[in-house]
Design brief:
This protein is an all-alpha fold and 465 residues long. The chain has a single domain (16-377), classed as Sodium/glucose cotransporter. 79% of the residues lie in helices and 0% in strands. It has 20 helices and no strands. It has helices at residues 10-28, 34-39, 46-57, 60-63, 66-74, 76-81, 83-103, 108-116, 118-151, 155-203, 207-212, 227-241, 245-252, 257-288, 297-300, 307-345, 351-372, 379-403, 409-429, 439-464. The longest helix is centred in the middle third of the chain and has 49 residues, at 155-203.
Length: 465
Amino acid sequence: MELQSNPQLLWFIGIYAILMVSVGIYMSKKVSNSADFILAGKSLGPIVLMGTLLATWTGSGSISGGETSVAYSFGIIPSLLLMIPTVIGIFILYIIAPKIRAFGKYTISGILEAKYGSTARNIASVIVILAYVGIVSYQMTGLGFILNITTGMSVELGTIIAAILIIFLAMIGGLRSVSQTDAISGFLMVGGLLITVPIIISVAGGWDTIVSNVPESHLTSTGGLTTIQLMGYLIPSLFLLLSDQNMYQRLAASNSDRSSKKAAISWLIVMLLISPAISIIAFTSRSLFPDIDPGMALMATTTALPLGVGGILLAAAAAFIITTGNSYLLSAATNMTYDVYGKYINKHPSDKQQLLMTKVFIVVLGVISFLLISFFPTVLEVQMYSYTVYGAGITPAILAVFFWKRVTAIGGISSMIAGVITTLVWELVLQTPFEINSSVISVPVAIIVLIIVSLITQKHSNVQS
């Protein structure tokens, strides 16, 4: 089938954008202080909380990278396996949600500082900002590509539109407005994907026709990937989710422990529905459009669907991307305000100053994210890099805070440094040898360093005492 853009699809994007901006402006009027802006006044109930968790986690990484690229490039089974990290991650977050709320910190760096000291906070802040700016950047470019392939709009213009929407929605009302727009977007996503699956299979001629049109390797359990290469796609998302500051902030913003647990369970159930839907749509796209960029697999199907269905799917995809982008941008700006500005520039800021600086940092980091796009050729590449820098640098240390009493400050800090350095060396210096994602190397290194250094320094502490 020939891929042809349809400018009429722009109407659906326009309606979605107007709705999101209107909700954002309305909710911004309810922001009275920095706590409202960053943690929504700890007022989120289970439904809105579930929606914002879902929308934040499932963005361009799923629509243009993750499940989509893997299903198109390697097959349906490897793509379905990407659900495993999400299921494990949500289950662990369900367990530790009350502890996260009890800490009451605005950033993941604050939790690490409470356990390991100010050095850990500084390192974590750098890691969060580096990773989150990368994540925001591929949300922008992801929407740019989507608008190009579906409506004919230039990638450059589409990316600029994405950047403006993401920055504006993050800045206008913080988590107070982002959580509401996330919830609306989350339900739009679920509906759009579930409606699309049976229709696109029918358009493609049925499942037997789809299977007959894809390479034989795409029907195997690994899709031609080695086990180590496959693990390189599974590990980064798990280790990002387990310590994702966005998720911690949202759980901390819930109105009770019960709400946070209800939201986590609902989030898990919905993910079990939409992750396979994304995989099936992208796999079907391989049959329909065998020569397109893998990152465009899901969005290409909007041009083959009836206008109404294609428009709903396009709006749902835009929802995934914009809500993820503004959430990560808000989170990174929070780090800049509390971990840089509040610690080194103005140690006694007023609440008004904190609120103002968070909005300023949203704009600054948003512009940097936009400029970063040119350094990464594909969404999947920057996704894996960003996930791994964060997952290896933060997750082992943060999980030890909740699950291992014997961890020491030196052990936690050493683990963070080892995870980041190993990732950067593997990705940037060695240029990803054997096409193995750095997470396969850097995460085990970070865990081993955490354990060994903690045990050694603990022994020394015992001897000195």
